[in-house]
Write a structure and sequence with these properties.
about 250 residues, alpha+beta, 9 strands, about 20% helix, globular
């Protein structure tokens, strides 16, 4: 579908009205439920825990992603340290100071018996947004991609990456955000400093898009200076359709 008009990122008057204020991403990567209660967990998290985070003024957006067997088969990189990942949960903050309120709210919800046992964590990280870009055809600006209804997200985790991946011209890619991890307290996160995380926002089936992305990613890694840690397509969770996409 062709959308009318000039892309937001080419109109200074649009950009002057605001940027969305997101600077920080808290990323939680987890494996499937140990007792197979994935749908039950997604229901609780989507209807209870996740909406509550938006009472915090520093939380601007949130996004939960889930892998399926087809998504797992389409991974272009799957280091053994990250192979168990089937879920990625992201909260987008205005700045890192918001993490203190994030922790306080978590404890308060726990005190009200409003928390289920978390999915087994693989890695958690705090990232600072470094680069944003949107494809001209989607019209919306790169700043608002966390609110844009993506049909999927390709998650790319790398070490030694100096810049965001050059994927914007590929079919199905609506935009890319890239961020770099920071060392924080072990209680909050365990990702080492210096990892690069890229979210490739998609407007095509994520498994189909993954096959188009693979050659470009393999070319990116061929020089050997960038270490691919994890490269995988994901579906967004569909509210009230808890069984639609499951590991």
């Amino acid at each position: 579908m062709h959308l009318p008009g000039t892309p937001s990122d080419e109109v200074s008057e649009i950009l002057a009205t605001g940027s969305g204020d997101i600077t920080t991403m808290f990323i939680s990567m987890a494996s499937r439920h140990p007792e197979g209660k994935d749908a039950e967990y997604l229901r609780w998290h989507t209807l209870d825990h996740r909406p509550e985070q938006h009472r915090l003024s520093t939380v601007r957006a949130s996004l939960r992603l889930v892998s399926t067997p087809e998504c797992r088969a389409a991974r272009a990189a799957n280091d053994h340290r990250f192979a168990a990942i089937d879920y990625v949960m992201t909260y987008f903050f205005t700045d890192r100071s918001g993490l203190s309120g994030f922790n306080a709210l978590s404890k308060a919800l726990d005190g009200a018996n409003r928390k289920l046992a978390l999915l087994p964590p693989v890695q958690r990280g705090v990232y600072t947004v470094q680069h944003k870009g949107a494809a001209e055809r989607v019209k919306v600006g790169a700043d608002v991609l966390p609110w844009w209804p993506a049909s999927g997200v390709y998650v790319l985790l790398e070490a030694g990456a100096p810049a965001r991946p050059d994927l914007m011209d590929l079919e199905g890619v609506a935009g890319v955000w890239s961020a770099t991890s920071h060392s924080v307290s072990a209680e909050l996160a365990n990702a080492p400093a210096g990892q690069t995380l890229s979210y490739v926002f998609l407007d095509d089936d994520p498994v189909t898009a993954a096959e188009r992305l693979r050659p470009a990613l393999e070319k990116r890694w061929s020089a050997g200076d960038i270490e691919p840690l994890f490269a995988a397509p994901f579906h967004p969770v569909i509210p009230h359709e808890w069984n639609r996409y499951l590991p």
